[in-house]
Amino acid sequence: MSQPFRLNKEGLINRNKKISFTFNGKKLFGFEGDTIASALIANGIHLVGRSFKYHRPRGFFGAGVEEPNAKLQVEFNGHSEPNVNATEMELVEGLSATSQNCWPSVNFDVGAINNFLKMFFPAGFYYKTFMWPKSFWYKIYEPFIRKAAGLGVASIEKDKERYEHKFEYCDLLVTGSGPSGLASAYAAAKNGAKVILAEDKPRFGGTLLTDDVSIDNLSGKDWAEKIITELKSMPNVTVKNRSQVFGYYDHNMLVMFERVSDHLEKKSKFTPRQRLWYIRAKETILSTGSIERPIVFGNNDTPGIFLSAAAKEYMKVYGVLVGKKPLIFTNNDSAYETALEFKKNNVEPIILDTREEHSSELIDEAKSKGIDIRFSHGVIVANGYKKVKSAKIGKLNKDKNSFEKIETVDCDCICVSGFWTPSVHLASQSGNKLKYEEKIDAFIPDKKKQHETSVGAANGSFTLEESLKHGFENGSNLSAKITETKTEISIPNVNEKKYGAHDKFWCMPLPKNENPKRFVDFQNDVSVSDIEIALREGYRSIEHVKRYTTLGMATDQGRTSNLNGLQLVSNIENKIVPEVGHTTFRPPFTPITIGTIVGREVGMEYMPTRKTPMHEWHEKNNAVFVDAGAWKRPRYYKLGSETLFEASKREAKNVRENVGICDVTTLGKIDIKGPDAAEFLNRVYTNAWMKLPVGKARYGLMLREDGIVMDDGTTTRISENHYHMTTTTAQAANVLSHLEYYLQIVWPELNVNVVSTTEQWAGAAIAGPKSRDMLSKLYPDLDVSNEALPFMGYKEAEFFGVPSRIFRISFSGELAYEINVKSDHGMFMWEKMMEVGKDFGNQPYGTEALSTLRIEMGHVAGPELDGRTIPSDVSLNGLVSKKKDFIGKNSLGREAFNVESRQKIVGLIPIDRKSSIPEGSHIVQDQNAKLPNPKLGHVSSSCWSVENNNPFSLAIMKDGKNMIGKKFFAVSPLKNKSIEVEVISSHYVDPEGKRVRS
Amino acid sequence: MLYIKCPYCGLRAQKEFSYGGDATVKRPNINEEVSSEDWDNFVYMRKSPRGKHIELWQHIAGCRQWIKVQRDTATHEIFQTAKVTEEIR
C-alpha cells in the first residue's frame, strides 16, 4: 500500500488521485501523473525485464524516450501491447504490466543461462554458428532462433480502437516545448504566424521543469506555464502535448504521432486512441533538446543504475527517489544538480568526478552543502545481480588508464552522467549533414537542407540564456519573413548556474584480470568487447560495425549508445570521431503503433466501395459479389443451395436459350465531344473511324505506343461531334488519362473534350434469343426490328417515361442490347426489366456467367489482353488498319511481332471432355519431361461450355494456329493437375457470328 | 511526400498526382514517316539522370491537367512547374 520511495511533497503528480495497477500480477498504487516507471520506482521495484541476448536483469535507465531497457507488455482499455516504454506510458486505472523476454518469470529466468555462456555469444555469433550443416537451417536453427528472439507478444485480436489521420498546414512547426521551443513559438505567434507547438511529454516545459533556474523572477516551471497559457489563448496557435514529431520528409513535411486518449480512463465513443498528423510547415524549429549519455563501466546495466538527469526528473516531476544511497558518477557539472536535489530531500549522495579537483559554481555549492565529492574517481564495476548493492570505485591515475586506489562503497543506485548529446535525428532526416562539435564531443546540425532551424540544446547550446535568445530570435525572424509583421519582444532576464568544462572521458578502464561486461548498447546487449571483436575481424565502416554487432539498432535507436560506440571505434582505430562518421538516422524517432499508420483505412474503409444503382436489388436477390477494382459486381445469383458452378451454368444456359439481364454499369464510359472527335478516335483506335455514321456503334481496339493492346470497347456516334466510348471496367481510369495525355500534350491542336461519365449512366445488358421480343415490350412504341435497329445500331427512346439510350452490342455473342439510363433511374429500369422479362424466361446473370458466354465465343478480355499481346496474337488483326496511322502502329512492324511462330490465341478442350483446365496452366508437349519443361503457352481463361456441355479454355500458345488438332498437356503444378488437351479454334460457339446479327 | 505546385490549382500534395515520365520526349508526328531508330528511341529509350529532370505529372485527383515539373531526382527539390504548353529552361 505504501510507496516507500515516494517523497512527501515534491513533484507535479496529483496526490489526490490514487491509481491502482498491477505489475507481474502484483497489485500496486501510484498517482495520477505517474508513468509506469515512476510508479514502480516509488514502490521500490527496479527489476522489470531481461535483456535481449543474455537475459540479464534490467531495470530503468532513463525517464523518457531515451529508455533502452524498460519495455513492458501492457494491457489497458481492453488491448495488449508489447514493447511499451515504461518511462513514457502514463498510469491509468486498471492497467496491467508484465515483463518481457523472460520465462518463467523476471525473477527466475531460464534464458539467463546465456549470461553465463556469454563467452560463446560474441558479436556475429549467429552469422558464424548456424552456417552448417546447411540442411539444419530451416528445421532446427531458424525455428529455435525465432522462438528465442523478440521481446513482447503482439496481439492477434482485431484492434477495436479508432485511429485517425490529420493533415495540417502551418507557418511554423516547433518540435519540443523546452525553453528554446517555447521562446520560438511565442515570438512567431506574436508575429501573427500560424504556429503548431508539439511536445512529446504530457507536461510542457522540457528542462524548465527540472532545472534550478529562474526567468523574469519566475521559476522555470512557472514561466513555462505562463507562456503556454498565453499561447493556448491565441487563435493562431495550436499547442499539442503527448505528440511526438517522429519523421522529417521531403518538402518540409513532418509527421507527428499524437497519443490522444491512452492516458484517459474513460473516453467518448468516437475519440480516437491515437492520431497521425501530416504537417506541411513553411518553417520548422527543431527544439528537440539533448539526451544525457552514460559513461561506460563494468556491469553498468545492473538495475538501479540511472542517467543522472533521469534521477533528478524522478525527484522533481514525480516525487520519487531512485535510491536512498546514491553514487553520482560524472564527468561534468550537470550531475551536481542531481546531487543537490538528493541533498535537498535529505539523502546523502557521494559524487565521483573523473575530473581533477577544481572549482565551479556548482562544485562550490555542493561542497558548501557538505556533499562527499571524490575527484579523479569513477565506478569500475557495479556489484549486485538484480539490484545494485555496492560499487567498486577507483581513483584514476593522471592518464586515466589505471588506478591509484580501489575500494568498495555501498550504494543502492548509481546516477551516471557522461555529458550531453543533442537530439539531431529530425535535422539529419531532413537531409542536414551533421558536423562534429569538438567542444561537446557530439554531432550538431550543419548547413540547412530544408526549412529547418535547430535551436537550443538540439543545436549544442547548453545554457538557458543562449537557448532562449536563439529561440526568440529564430522564432521571430523566421515568422516575420512569412507574415511580414515583426513584434519586438524583450528577451527576459535569466538566472542560471554556470557550468564548468566537462571531461572528455567516456569509458572506465578495467583493473588487470577483471573482465565484467561493459555495455555500450543496453537494448541490444552490445558490449565493449563485441565492438572490439567486430573491428578485429575487419569491419571498418561504422555502418558495418552497426550491422555486425547490432549497436544502435532497435526501438531506442541507440539514443544513449551511439556516441560512446563511435568513441570506442575511433579510439581503437586511432581516428577522430568525425572521421568515423555516424550511422544514418531514420524515422520513426520513437516507435509508433501500426494502427496509427493505417489510420481509418481498415476493413470496409480500406478502399472506397463503388456500388451500382441496382446494388440493393442484387443484395435482395441473393447475389454473391465479386470485387472488380473498387466496384462490387454480382458474380452469380444463388438459388437455393446452388454452388457457384451450378448457378453460373444455369445463368449462362438461360442466356443461350431465353434471355438474361446483366448489370453493366461498371463499364468505363467516356463522353467525347468536339469537331475533331472523329479524327481523334481515328488516331486512338487501330481501326477506321472517319466514316462511322451518326447512330452507329463500332468495336474499337486501342494500343500502347509499343504495339501492345491496351483496351477494347465500343464507341457510338451520338451526334455529329459527340461520341460515347466504353472501356473495360478495369482500364477505365487508365484510358481516360491516356486520352487526356494525347489531347493535352501530343495533339493540343485537336479540338476535343473528354470526360468520364461512368457514374452518370446505369447500364443493363439484355442478351439471348428472346431479347428482341423482350425489348419490344420495353419499348412498345419503337420499331426494334433487325432492319430498324441492326447489329451495332443505336437509338434514343423513352423507357417508360425515362430518357434512355439503346445500343445493339453484344459481349455474350447472342442477340443482345445494352440500355443506359441516368443513374438515378437505374433501379427503376432494372425492376421494370425483371417484371417485363418474366414472360420470356428472363433471369439475371453475374460475371461468372458473363465470362462463360464470352469465353466459349472466343471473345478476348483482361486475361488475354494482359499487357503482352498484340492484335494478331488475339486474332484481332482484322481491326488493324493498313491505311492510316494510329497510336502504336509503328511498333507493329517490329521483327519479333511478325515471326511466323509467334503466340496466338487458341481454344483447348480436354480429351476426356470432363476435366476442367485450371487457369494459368502451362501447355507442354510431355508432362513427364525433366524440368525445366519447355513451355509452349499458357491457359488464360477457362469455363464450362454451356453450349457443348464440356470444359473449354482459351490459351495463348506459340505458333497456335498451326497447332490446331494436336494434343498436348495442360499442367498446373499449383493445383497438382495435368490434363491432356486438344487444340481447337478459339471460336467454339457460333464462329460466323450469326447470332449477334440475327 | 512531395509538394507540387500545379500551375492551375496551386500547391498540392503528391498523392493527388500521378507520374508520367520524361517530359522532353517528343512523339513523332502522326502520318509522317519515321525511321525505326527514331521510333525505338521514342518508345523505349529514356535517360535516368541524377539531378535536374523535366518530367510529366498529371493532377489526377484535381484538375486532371498534365503538367511539367522540373525536379532533382536525387534530392527531390522542385525548381519549377509549368503547363505542358509552356517551356521550362
CATH architecture of the largest domain in chain A: 3-Layer(bba) Sandwich
| Strand order within the widest beta sheet of chain B | 3-4-5-6
Detail the poorly predicted runs of chain A: none
- What is the tally of beta strands of chain A? 50
Helical content of chain A stands at 10-25%
Question: How would you characterize the largest beta sheet of chain A?
Answer: 7 strands, mixed
Total individual domains of chain A: 7
> Which pair of chains forms the biggest interface, and how many residues does each contribute?
A-B, 27 and 27 residues
CATH hierarchy, class of chain B: Alpha Beta
Describe the model.
The complex is a heterodimer of chains A (998) and B (89). By secondary structure, chain A is α+β, with helices and mostly antiparallel strands. Chain A starts with 13 loop residues before the first strand and ends with a helix. Helix content of chain A is 22%, strand content 28%. Chain A has 7 domains: 1-157, Ubiquitin-like (UB roll) (Roll); 163-290 and 422-495, FAD/NAD(P)-binding domain, CATH 3.50.50.60; 294-418, FAD/NAD(P)-binding domain; 511-573, Arc Repressor Mutant, subunit A (Orthogonal Bundle), CATH 1.10.10.1100; 609-666 and 758-857, Gyrase A, domain 2; 669-757, Aminomethyltransferase beta-barrel domains (Alpha-Beta Plaits, 2-Layer Sandwich); 893-997, Elongation Factor Tu (Ef-tu), domain 3. Chain A is built from 24 helices and 50 strands. In chain A, strands 8, 9, 12, 13, 14, 15 and 28 form a 7-stranded mixed sheet that branches. A 6-stranded mixed sheet of chain A has the order 41-42-43-40-34-44, with helices on both faces. Chain B is mainly β and 89 residues long. Chain B has a single domain, classed as Folate-binding fold. Chain B is built from 1 helix and 6 strands; from the N terminus they run βββαβββ. A 4-stranded antiparallel sheet of chain B has the order 3-4-5-6, with no helix packed on it. The longest helix of chain B is centred in the middle third of the chain and has 8 residues, at 36-43. The radius of gyration of chain B is 14 Å and the shape is globular.
